Amino acid sequence: MLAFYLVVCWTSAMAEFMQVRQHKHYGARREINKCKELLRFESESIDFLAAEFLNETDTRGGGLSPRKQMEVFLRFVADPGFQSGIAEDVGVHRTTACKTVSYVMDKIIDRANFWIHFPATVEEINEAKIQWQRNFRLPTVIGALDCTHVQIKKPNLHGDEYVNRKGCITINVQGTCDALERFTSISAEWPGSVHDARIWRRSPVREIMSRFDGRVCLLGDSGYGISPWLITPFKPPTNEAERRFNLCHSRERVVIERCFGQIKRRFPILGNCVRVASEKVPKVVVCCAVLHNIAKYLGDVYDDNFEINGDDEIEEIDVQHENPGTTRRGADKRREMMLFVNQ
């Protein structure tokens, strides 16, 4: 009898408990932007990217929709590069993910010159100069120049050439940017052992700048030789006027370091190691630069609060710079800019 009574009481209690659970209300949970976390872009921006680079009627890319193809590629550049994990995150087979990454990468490369463009005409140069003056102080400047190292797998051919001064296997990537932190050029073909100044001497951008013979210039660090089209800081400054110029120069040149910092934070594949065949590495870097510029165009910001870590500090070695006449004219232009800063 006692056992029966206990069973009845337990049943009644459970009924009341279940009734309470049925009427329980939960507070709204904090929504996490999984799209931005995994793919580094807002959902609307991904739609734009898919429409910009991928054709709805093209059946290549594993039979996936353009949106899904773009998601696969974005997960690839937002990840250290293990495609098995990418496939799982996006919900496709690893083989499909691998093919899709290559396909989308080629599509972005086809449009790279539209989204990464260095001013070459008088009109474009003047527009870039005006934009710089709106945001900064130094006159006749149209952008900033620097290099950064991106770690890669050691190539089978000439692998030792890719060992940089820190002993890491890298490529040395040269970039220029404008006042709005958009890349205007990117070069990702040079092994990590090659000095920044040598890359600059072989750069098509240097050839373009030299045509204007000092009417406009870029800002570079002291690892480069000075010229009328590339202004570097005084090394070392000998008076207060030169120190003030160097401070102004540093505050404005940092825009290119910000670009490199932003691209590596948005796309961790560049900040970790690009684990693809060596011949595809430049494509990955250029694609990330294109996506960076599009993010600027769309106003799609990702983690903009970062500190420049200085892992690409200036290498102080003797390198062949410009000829004496060019160096002298560059020094004269720098002195004019110094006088302007100290007015």
From TrEMBL:
<dbReference type="InterPro" id="IPR026103">
    <property type="entry name" value="HARBI1_animal"/>
</dbReference>
<dbReference type="InterPro" id="IPR027806">
    <property type="entry name" value="HARBI1_dom"/>
</dbReference>
<dbReference type="GO" id="GO:0005634">
    <property type="term" value="C:nucleus"/>
</dbReference>
<protein>
    <recommendedName>
        <fullName>Putative nuclease HARBI1</fullName>
    </recommendedName>
</protein>
<comment type="similarity">
    <text>Belongs to the HARBI1 family.</text>
</comment>
<feature type="signal peptide">
    <location>
        <begin position="1"/>
        <end position="15"/>
    </location>
</feature>
<keyword id="KW-0539">Nucleus</keyword>
<keyword id="KW-0732">Signal</keyword>
<keyword id="KW-0479">Metal-binding</keyword>
<dbReference type="GO" id="GO:0046872">
    <property type="term" value="F:metal ion binding"/>
</dbReference>
<comment type="function">
    <text>Transposase-derived protein that may have nuclease activity. Does not have transposase activity.</text>
</comment>
<dbReference type="Pfam" id="PF13359">
    <property type="entry name" value="DDE_Tnp_4"/>
</dbReference>
<keyword id="KW-0963">Cytoplasm</keyword>
<keyword id="KW-0378">Hydrolase</keyword>
<dbReference type="GO" id="GO:0004518">
    <property type="term" value="F:nuclease activity"/>
</dbReference>
<feature type="domain" description="DDE Tnp4">
    <location>
        <begin position="145"/>
        <end position="293"/>
    </location>
</feature>
<keyword id="KW-0540">Nuclease</keyword>
<dbReference type="GO" id="GO:0016787">
    <property type="term" value="F:hydrolase activity"/>
</dbReference>
<dbReference type="InterPro" id="IPR045249">
    <property type="entry name" value="HARBI1-like"/>
</dbReference>
<dbReference type="GO" id="GO:0005737">
    <property type="term" value="C:cytoplasm"/>
</dbReference>
